[in-house]
Amino acid sequence: MKVDISQFHDAFFEEMSEHLAAMEQLLVGLNIENPDAESLNGIFRAAHSIKGGAGIFGFPDLASFTHVLESLLDQLRSEKLALQPAMIDSFLAARDVLERMQSRYRRGGEADDDEKNDTAIISAQL
Predict the structure, then answer these.
(1) What is the mean pLDDT of the chain?
(2) Comparing C-alpha atoms, which of 10, 15, 21 is closest to residue 108?
(3) For the chain, where are the alpha helices, taking DSSP H only?
(4) pTM
(5) What is the CA radius of gyration of the chain?
(6) How many angstroms separate the first and last alpha carbons of the chain?
(7) pLDDT tens for residues 56-106?
(8) Rounded-to-integer distance, Cα 18 and Cα 81, Å
(9) Nearest residue to 100 via CA among 121, 90, 114, 120
(10) CB atoms within 10 A of CB 86
């Protein structure tokens, strides 16, 4: 018997909203010169949770975009890459794109040209 997981979409979207809010709060409060590991881990966990849920619920562009963000965050938290001020702006822009993607999925719509362009631009910045 196949389970219809679409019945759980609303729960995923609510959880995603919480992750996006946490991500924004942590990014805004991050000390660029000396980012604390707990904040970086929290931002990473938010992205990781969104990516995992997107994969489970069949939102491939959301999962793919979040994977790019998650990979960069992993490099930061493992200190393979140093945090730069422009990265915060890119992360916040990525958060906004994720929110728009979420809104689109909630409506059941397709990505428009603006969203596709924003996704490509932010992915390139990351």
Answers:
(1) 90
(2) 10
(3) 9-28, 37-57, 60-77, 85-107, 113-125
(4) 0.88
(5) 15
(6) 41
(7) 988 999 999 999 999 999 999 999 999 999 999 999 999 999 999 999 888
(8) 27
(9) 114
(10) 10
